[in-house]
Amino acid sequence: LCDAPLLTGATRGGGYATHVVADVRFCFPLPKGIGDVEAAPLLCAGLIGWRAYRMAGNCEALGLYGFGAAAHILAQVAIAEGKRVFAFTREGDTESQEFARSLGCEWAGSGDATPGIKLDSAIIFAPVGTLVPAALKLVRKGGRIVCAGIHMSDIPGFPYADLWGERSIRSVANLTRADGTDFLSCDHISAIKTHTTTYPLEQANQALDDLREGRLQGAAVLVP
Questions:
Q1: 3-state SS, residue 108
Q2: Distance of alpha carbon 13 from alpha carbon 23, whole angstroms
């Protein structure tokens, strides 16, 4: 939880460099037999999803709000571990809902819908503050809400009764080296199939626009 982190591509240059010199302490071995494009989502979306998953605690029924790069990886891990996964998408986004079901999610629907059961935990990847009170209504007593985005719109007020019962809300800020080591060496890492859409580097703005508008499934990857 560093107060002044240095992030390549954000607070320091080099995010689009073709070659870099890296401190070995911050490097991770990648799974064997996986290409660069397939591996790219594991190193950001996958790692943040993994940290959020661990913060969610020991849960049997897990809700994922926002079914994009991180959620489509995490869903595969959770399902492989025997969890029941429920995917929440934008209203009317039937394509993402079908994508979630194709990966093994038990249920998929819009963010204001209900799967008909109480969730043990919910992870919110979408930067939409209104999803927090919506998720609270679906989480059982003692359950957890994990906000996994860097940014989120304001969270509206909600009745204390929705939080009462030892429910908790927490955020994910940064991942640790231990998170990276644990995720990339977990039992199911070799079975994860990342779904990617590639863009040439000069179309980076188009990739961001497509992500914002929900025009792709899985992760966007820039290639030289």
A1: strand
A2: 16
Domain extent listing, the chain: 32-195
- The per-residue pLDDT for range 140-181, each reduced to its tens digit, is 999 999 999 989 999 999 999 999 999 999 999 888 889 999
CA nearest neighbour of 214 among 80, 71, 113: 71
Q: Which two tokens stand for residue 181?
A: 């080591």
Quote the CA–CA distance of 107 and 191 in Å, as a whole number. Answer: 22
CA distances in angstroms from 131 to 13, 63, 89, 179, 223, listed in the order given: 34, 11, 11, 26, 33
What does the mean pLDDT of the chain come to? 93
Q: ∠ CA 137-102-74 to the nearest 5 degrees?
A: 60
**Helix ranges, 56-197 (H):** 69-80, 94-102, 131-136, 160-163, 177-184
State what percent of residues in the chain have pLDDT above 90: 78
CB 115 within 8 A of CB 109: yes
Q: What is the pTM (predicted TM-score) of this model?
A: 0.94
The CATH code of domain 32-195 reads 3.40.50.720
